[in-house]
Records
---
Amino acid sequence: MKDRPLTITFASLGLAEPIARALSDEKYEIPTPIQAQAIPHAIVGRDVIGIAQTGTGKTAAFALPILHRLATTDGKPWPKAPRVVVLCPTRELGAQIVDSFHAYARYLRLKTMLAIGGVPIGKQKRELASGTDVLVATPGRLLDLSNERAVSFEHVEVLVLDEADRMLDMGFIRDIRKIVAMIPAKRQTLFFSATMPSEIAKLARDMLRDPVTVAVTPTATTVELIEQRAIRAERQQKPALLASLLRDEAVTRALVFTRTKHGADRVVRGLDNEGIAAQAIHGNKNQGARERTMAAFRSGEIRVLVATDIAARGIDVDDVTHVVNFDLPNVAETYVHRIGRTARAGASGIAISLVSGEEMPLLRDIEKLTRRQVPLSGQASAPQRHADNEPRGERREGNRQRQGRGRGGNERHDGGQPRGDQRHAQGHRNDRDGGKPQQNQPGKAQHRGNRTGKPQGNRHHGGPSRPHDGGNIGDIGFMSRPGR
Ligand code: AMP
């Protein structure tokens, strides 16, 4: 990755030998910036606030100093009483954290276990009863286990909060505060979050002691590695355009983002009609279905995974060549999280956003945040009927989850109402092309093209794409690029 301080190596961090050996097995040579900054403080017992998102190597930034502590101090875990508790927002992220601990601790005799909701609690109780060094858990399930006296916090030495901002988004703050209140005050706390909204900053102030704050700038480091594009396309044009983009053989593994669970299912059905195998991953699917889908995506059995933002948090699949934003997210930072899926561990990738007229202000927000212009191609001529790409009454997944959990719906830092809707209500238009009538009819051409089932990329037409000049959206062959 870029921006690595040259002087810091894993050897200079002084990690215990079995851990260093495991890192060498993993082919980790140089610490990533968040690791280089966080590990020296964490390893001497300081509390750390790490501002970093998935893809920066943040898991090892907390896992390695924790394993060093466990490897260099005596102590077998007591029944039900873990020495380390890691709280995280989703099952997928939890599973990946456990995988990371297993990988880095492969030469240590330590036990790491996962306690997540959506699966029977009995096995987790039995595992806890036999003693675990590291417990990785989602807050709701951990509270359930605590209420059933299946876990005791009295021997916890280190507490980690991973993706704290996402836990806030998902309405877990009260659960977290209850758990923290049960953990001994004399502990080390490692607190990771991609962003620092005020409620998260307050939580950190309340639970950390004299913390060191370290930060990496994901918008600069991650975004630089990714080739970003946007295509103007109205809601009704998007399914056919998506299918034609995904037919390009340069797309070996694509992650498609939608705002809603129903939207994800609709996209999968649309692709299926076009003969493109895809599966969706979102909060309505049970754990078994999610795991099967992820395994099929990892193995390459399916090339296209359609995901909502919440379900996609923590998905760690290498070699995602393309991220496609079927809808733009209402929060610009979410865009950075999304496209970061294609730039894992320093790899590069391509991110394509399908942008309707109503979504143009969101594209401007993204450009402001990332301080980069996203080249825009094509245009749309079809009339717009509704502000959002979601049918009325359909809500974003996060909102529904919060409602379902009955924990109050006001624990969001981005406000209850999606920004796109607010802008629409205010009649706010900020289109780059001023919303002027368009000269040609690309949408029609696109639909015609797709009925024939032929790919629409320009390599099939032989002409270059014409960013910003109103070219046909079917004439954009940029799923591949030289050198990939
Ligand atoms: P994370 O941000 O923890 O989800 O890590 C993102 C990816 O980077 C994972 O696939 C890690 O295995 C990988 N990774 C983490 N640290 C390093 C490193 N120092 N060198 C190479 N790869 C790394």
---
Amino acid sequence: MSVIGYDLGNLSCYIAVARQGGIETIANEFSDRNTPCIVSLTSKERSIGSAAKTQIISNYKNTISNFKRLLGRPFDDPFVQNEMKDLPYKLSRTADGGVGVRVKYAGEDVEFSMAQVCGMLLTKLRSITEVNLKKPVQDCVLSVPSFFSEVQRRNLLAAARIANLNCLRLFNDTTAGKISTPCFPDPAYLLTFFQITKIFIIFFQITKLSIILPWLLKPKFKFHHMLSKNYVSNITYIMALAYGIYKQDLPAAEEKPRIIIFVDMGHSSLQVAAVAFNKGKLKVLATSFDPYLGGRDFDRLLFNHFADLFKDKYRIDVRTNKRAELRLLIECEKLKKQLSSNSGRMTLNIECLMDDKDVQGAMTSLNSCLCIYGWGLFNCYSFNHDYIIRTDFEALCAPLIQRVEKPLRTILQDAKLQSQDITSIEIVGGATRMPAVKSTIAEVFGMKVSTTLNADEAVARGCALQCA
Ligand code: ATP
Ligand code: MG
């Protein structure tokens, strides 16, 4: 039976299968390899993926998108509360305190847990795969962000079970696959963990400060990740695996390893890994991430810019009209992509955006101070022309671009690397297509970025490779 790799992104999913002669990515019923992470429910049916995308505006209350990050979180989690403000559909607290979604489905008010929604999406992915392979599919490898907690991972497994998928527990570094990996958890990490814990206990005993206790009891992100049982594959490891399999010219086992930095910036997060390669062997030296920085934050910045502009210029407040808000957000994403490939002048035009008004947006009349989305920083702009060019966009997004730097510098520190130790920087994820992101990565590491891996499909391919 074939084992399938599923890359479940916040925006889009990719499917890959290991077949004789290589890894193939599978297209959906619209001949598209990219299946949007969207579930739409109506009075008659549920549509998932590309079909659901067409309903994102017309049926916004019952169309669920951007849900991967809500999986396995408590409803009261500040992240959930913050996300809720921008979501067009209604979130609810499930009986066990988790996140649910309230929708109208088949004429009734229904609540689905996030695992159920994710299960629906995985069911669709399984059906796409089965149609393509013309046989039943069960075993799979799923991608998961490095920063997902144990509870989130378990919820993803529950979603896989709902979809009748058997998610293989393959990412166990103590056992070797085709490529051997360091034992997991790495003894060095364990040692550091125990040493640090010991220091904390001694410190606590000496100071008897009750304030330390809650802090100590709070799960520590990094250790939690490193020591957690890995049910599903770590995304950075998957990319490294995909790279290692294809590269034929790696140094022999006794030689100095080749060090590659992997950067994945998708819709909602940024993940970085430093990996040392020898023939038949890879070692993850360090990982770092910003779980709250992705392409969607750039869309939101543009959105805020134009929403404020249209308020002044056309006397319309798109924030008070969900349909107008969604349309503007979609146009902002399109504009962002155009600005990646085009350095010329552009404008944003939308017909009948709200109150029958056609709007045209540029970087104009915004000489006042703007609150920068997400950080609450203040910044002054003085764009004043009737078009948009890339440099305007980059100036607007400067605070986000600065945030890209931090996990990159952290990886150099944690892996104790200098730029001369690094052979290449491999970038994947849609948001790395932004020239400013690329140049920031190149600047931090002091070398050009490389795109050996397919930016969209690398993760799914790596998943399929795990069991090839
Ligand atoms: P995540 O990895 O965060 O869960 P994902 O895997 O679904 O999300 P990707 O498909 O890697 O995300 O990337 C999607 C993001 O990349 C979107 O924000 C999209 O707007 C952005 N993107 C895609 N192409 C371009 C482009 N040419 N220029 C700028 N941004 C782009
Ligand atoms: Mg991704």
---
Amino acid sequence: MVSEPAHSKWVAVKANIATREGPTNCGSAFLADYTSPFDATVVDRLKQHGYRIGLKTNMDEFGMGSFGLHSAFGSVTNPALDATAQPRVAGGSSSGSAAVVAAGQVPLALGSDTGGSVRVPAAFCGIVGYKPSYGRLSRWGLVSYASSFDCVGVLASSVDQAEAAMQVMQGHDSRDETSLNVDWAAQEAQDTPVRRVGVIQEAVIHELAPAMHDRWELALQQLAQQHCLEIDTVSVPTLKQALAAYYMLVSAEAASNLSRYNGLCYGAQSGAPETFDGFFDMYSSNRTQYLGDSVKQRIMTGNHILSRGKFDSYYLTAARVRAQLTLELQRVFERVDVLVLPTTADVAPTIEAARNIEPVQEYATDVYTVPFSLAGLPAISVPCGRDPQSSAPMGLQVVAPRQLDHRAAHVARLLE
Ligand code: GLN
């Protein structure tokens, strides 16, 4: 038996996943000095299987961002391009985790994926990004952004490496009520082989870059010709509303989750108040001073959506879109076994271009990833070559029905 090289068990961990060693600052000035007194369940389980925590990685503040430019501790540059090329973003929000794997510093990194934060940086950096079914991995010790979406995910150089780590980390955790009690090996053993690949017709949008479209078609051809899979066009009409619904729902959840950052319980404190009203002043001055702009934007949007008079028209409408989309995807999976589509519509933008992008355009980066987060489905991004013009990496995503993560892993391996 060949023994594994010592470094193969080093793992980097995103700064919003609690580890006893290193900072758990979530990319936020608010938690700049925070260190966790405990390990997240996923970290604990990795350690029990011989993995070692090598690095904590930079990220968009509290997971909010698609480019890795919203951290209090500086931005992350994409290491997949040579030094002569114009610097590009690494993607976000698991920007540091993707960059250290792509740069070969560690074979594996943990990230979190609420709406694409593992898959987008994986695609931009030319590595594998694996978001499991919602609930497969415990969220205990993952700092909450939008709890009904948040998943721990894995960034790695191969699907096998990512899957090996998943298997060590999976399993019910009594400290996370949403963690699943599923026999994952039995799910795989009882499943029928993958035969049909679905292509969502609504995923062909005008923002899709021609090189990305070509690469998608080539992959489908390869699956049909080399692996004898049937390719079927399917329709998911609500796909078009997914992005708007996602940003409304996550902002609402974030406004609630982030209310704990007031300077009393965690992190930044600007001096103890002397009067009762002083607590309110302290609360607002801490939040004004230590939270970044993108986080404040989400909190304000979220509170607006949750306010009386807006709740029905925004929150409930978005919740209905989520339910409808989930239903449509369930129906699609009665016809096909997996879906294959691009992870992003285009390659990573240059850092300069990304800095000048309006927030709404940044949100649009997630157009292909958020639908499956809304439905809690497993989705794996695999590298699929480079853009002939910029030579920036491109990624394709394989999506499977809930709790059938192995199907996504199987087809992702065929595309590797
Ligand atoms: N870019 C998306 C957002 O800002 C996704 C982030 C994530 O998955 N953490 O919400």
---
Amino acid sequence: MVKPLSPLLRESMPEKDVTEGIEHPLALLKMVLEDPTPLLDLANFSIVSARQFTRDQIVQLCRLAAKHEAVPQQSRRPLVGKILISAFYEPSTRTRLSFESAWHRLGGDIMSITDPTTTGIAKGESLSDVAEMLNNYGDLVVLRETNKDSIYEMLKNLRIPIVNAGNGIDEHPTQALADIYTIFKWRPQLVNREVESGDKIKMGIIGVPKNMRTIRSLLYLLSLFPSSFSEIVVICHEKDVFDSTQEEYLQNSSLNIRVTDVMNKELPELDVVYINSIAWIGDSYEIFGEDYQLRKDSPLKPGAIVMHPLARGEELSTDLDDTNHNWYFAQARSAVFIRMALLTCLVQHNW
Ligand code: CP
């Protein structure tokens, strides 16, 4: 059931977008009618893949994130007394800290594992046994692991929700949520089912989808919004850019996708440029060469936004930081609010 804004929310909403930065969460909040129904299905749910979300869930999660961001005085503390187990067996700056920031802002407590050698795993304990123990200690697990199968191993014994915070080259579904929330704040009309042809955007994705978890998850989410994009251009030096699962999934979607290896020819036409730094190959990674570097003097379209899940390498010059193209810092900031929205729904659906 679609409900209009509650009178309480309308009264406490600022007239103008008073939040810091270049994003417009208030415009997005006003664009989307509240409908909690799709979010109820997320209660006690584990998130492994971006493919688990429906279009309506994404729209309502973005609305809830925009509410947390634009009207923080309305945010309650629904996770008081709840404990997050934050298990990062691979380095992270943004994902761990934004998850923990989100949980703190919602009133909960946190236990953090940042080094697996401090747990029984160093003595050969199985992940499924660790999972059995975690059931007793917390209310939700966030896991980052280099091995893409570890999360499935833990799922066998977990009775509390687990969220995939990056499993090898496979997926990073909550990064994709932060990405799409950022795009919708930039152009709120893109959440609509019907988007006028002049409002559709052309998005470039620089990277190798089969080796990059952020891009894999992002493409799955974008495929829920085919009418928002005139074209997705994947820019990559490789010929086989998709694995068979991705290829089949994307072929069954209505996204208009093209692959090219020449970046600068595409840049003047792109409204959103999404660049990633590294492609995982086994246990190591490759860095793109000079042909895939974005700089202030790159032929970017005026008004185009540049996104990057970070951490950046040489592919994204710091001389873009002070330009209007820089939406990668806004993207990192968005992660806190979209994770607040998701965590509230997974643990406690009385938001
Ligand atoms: N975006 C992202 O996954 O960054 P971290 O590796 O710092 O978590």
